[in-house]
Structures are given as structure tokens and as C-alpha cells.
Amino acid sequence: MAVSNLPRILIPLPDRDFDPTESATPWRVCAERGWKVTFATENGDVPAADHRLLMGFVRGPLGAGPMGLADYNAMIRTDGYNTPIKYEDIDVSDYDALLLGGGHAPGMKQFLESSILQEKVVQFFKENKCVGAICHGVLVLARALDPETGKSVIHNYRLTSLTKGLEMIGYAATFWLLGRRFRTYDAYVADEVRDALRSRRQYSSGMIPFPHVVVDRNLVTSRYWLFDAMKYSLKFAEMVEAQTGGKRHIPLSGMV
């Protein structure tokens, strides 16, 4: 059932290695509201989450929990997920909001380093559209430079991201099995994000293990799925509803 006046959400992904929970739980919250969700990958290929994270929290290790796995398995069965558009074909005017998920494995670099995607992000901010980013997804914002100022689109925003402490814990907990796989880059995510801000005081780390989400104008950011995924997803939906008036809810089973 298509309803043209409902919010339209864009979820770009890499071809592989994204975190299943950080994309699928926000997707589910949007889908339950009957919102139109479009996926995008660099060349229009059907994406796949990090296979280690799909092994679960213990076997992963630090893989997805039951909620994230259920959301991911529902998401990958939808027509939208299986027919993504290309990054270069994203027309920002077609969407009301953007969701940028995380992930730490090597395949994420395709998404994190895409100059095309960064240009689209700048347009979302120029048009004051809703943006949500969690974990490594905040790096896409940090690297999206406004050509008029030469500064990141998040330069004057309050926000959070995967914190240095959480990245260090993840690395220490998985090095015995996965080596440096949890460290996407030599630099910590939080350090690069802070460097994109006007003042480091704009960055908020929150406290483990309490959920932590930062909302500033059209931007919602969060740290990591384990503590934050559900609260982040709901805050994003609230922001979209406030900006678009898209408050219609339907059961997930009623989607087409």
C-alpha cells in the first residue's frame, strides 16, 4: 500500500560489513509507521551485513542481539532492500530523512569514504532535512565538507558517536580472535569526529551502560547498538514526525 504523503527515508549502505542492528532497528521503527524506505549502495548491488555480527553476541563476538537479528532478517526480505539504487542516483529532493548506520569491519570503508555519498549528505543538510547517524556512521558526516565553508556539516552541532572508550573495549574484547578487525582505522572514530567540530565541548560521550542519544536541530546521533539502538531509532522517528507530520502507524506485516 503506497501513501504518497508519508515520510520517505533513505538508508545508504556498503556492499558488505555493516552493523545489522544499527541499520535494521531504525528501519523497523520507520517501517512500522508505514514510511517509504529506500536503500542505496555504491553500484546498486544488494548489500549484506557483517557476517561475524550475524553470528550473535557471544559467537560474534560482540555480534547482534536477538532484536537486531530479528530486525535484520525482516529487513532483508523486503523488496526495497533487494532493489537498492546507486549512490550517484540519489536525488535528495526525493527524501525527507537520511539514516547512516555503523559497522567496523573493512567493507565499511566503501561507505565511509565515498565522496559521492558525502556530497549527498551536504545536500541533506543544506535542505535542513532530518539526519540520523550512529556509531561509525557519524564519520560520514565528519567527512562531508560544505564547499562554501570548507568545514564539515557537523561543525556547529552537538553530537556523539562511537566513543573512544567503547572502541577500545570492543578492540580489547575481540583482538584474541579477530585481530585488528574491530579497529577500522588507526585513528579513533571519536577523535576524527571531534576534530570536525568547532569546539570539542560539542561532543558528548554519555555514560556506559545507559542509553545516550544527542538531538540537535535536524540531527540525531548515538554511539553503539548495544546501549542505544532502540532509543536512537525512536528519537529519529520523533524528529521526522515533528518535521513532516508523518504519524501514521501500520503493523509491519501490513507493509508491501
Please outline what is shown here.
The protein is an alpha/beta fold.
SSE map:
Layout: E1 8-12, E2 16-18, H1 20-32, E3 36-41, E4 48-49, H2 66-75, H3 79-82, E5 85-86, E6 97-100, H4 109-112, H5 115-126, E7 130-134, H6 137-143, H7 164-178, H8 189-195, E8 213-216, E9 219-222, H9 225-244
Parallel strand pairs: 1-3, 1-6, 2-4, 3-5, 6-7, 7-9
Antiparallel strand pairs: 8-9
Keywords:
single chain, 256 residues, alpha/beta, Rossmann fold, 7-stranded mixed beta sheet, two-stranded parallel ribbon, 9 helices, globular, disordered C terminus
Q: What can you see in these coordinates?
A:
The chain is an alpha/beta fold. The protein has a single domain, classed as Rossmann fold (3-Layer(aba) Sandwich). 36% of the residues lie in helices and 14% in strands. It is built from 9 helices and 9 strands. The strands form 2 sheets. It has a 7-stranded mixed beta sheet, sandwiched between helices. Strand 8 and strand 9 form a beta hairpin. The chain is globular. It starts with 7 loop residues before the first strand and ends in a 12-residue tail after the last helix. The C terminus is likely disordered.
